Amino acid sequence: MAESINRVVLAYSGGLDTSVILKWLQQEYNCEVVTFTADLGQGEELEPARAKAELMGIKPEHIFIDDLREEFVRDFVFPMMRSN
Predict the structure, then answer these.
(1) What share of the chain is helix, strand, coil (3-state, %, to 5)?
(2) Spatial contact of 66 and 38, defined as CB atoms under 8 Å apart
(3) What letter does residue 82 receive in the DSSP assignment?
(4) Where are the domains of the chain?
(5) 77 touches 40 (CB < 8 A)
(6) What's phi and psi for 8, nearest 5 deg?
(7) Which GO terms describe its biological process (predicted)?
(8) 8 A C-beta contact, residue 48 and residue 65
(9) How far apart are CA 8 and CA 33, in angstroms?
């Protein structure tokens, strides 16, 4: 029997792998799934990810898409470029 889990936050891209795990979490644990998608500059993939999450039964208020482009460039891209 699955352990009692009420809510899970899933790093969600809208792709096949995260969509399959989203459905598995809902079925296996009968839990509420909250999706988080980081905008790192991928652009047009964000709204389809939101739409897929909604189609899979995620409430709109449990779908989070945050713009992390500035942090990504500052904390990862620039340090990588400086290190050559």
Answers:
(1) 55, 20, 25
(2) yes
(3) H
(4) 7-83
(5) no
(6) -130, 135
(7) argininosuccinate metabolic process; L-arginine biosynthetic process; urea cycle
(8) no
(9) 5
Q: What is the mean pLDDT of residues 27-46?
A: 94
Which SS3 state, helix, strand or coil, does residue 22 take? helix
The mean pLDDT of the chain is 94
Provide the phi-psi class of 43: left if phi over 0, else alpha when psi is between -120 and 50, else beta: left
52-75 per-position pLDDT tens digit: 999 999 999 999 999 999 999 999
What would the two tokens of residue 49 be? 């990810």
Distances 24 to 42, 56, 71, 73, 77 between C-alpha atoms, Å: 26, 11, 31, 33, 34
CATH architecture of 7-83: 3-Layer(aba) Sandwich (3.40)
CA nearest to 48, candidates 33, 34, 37, 32: 37
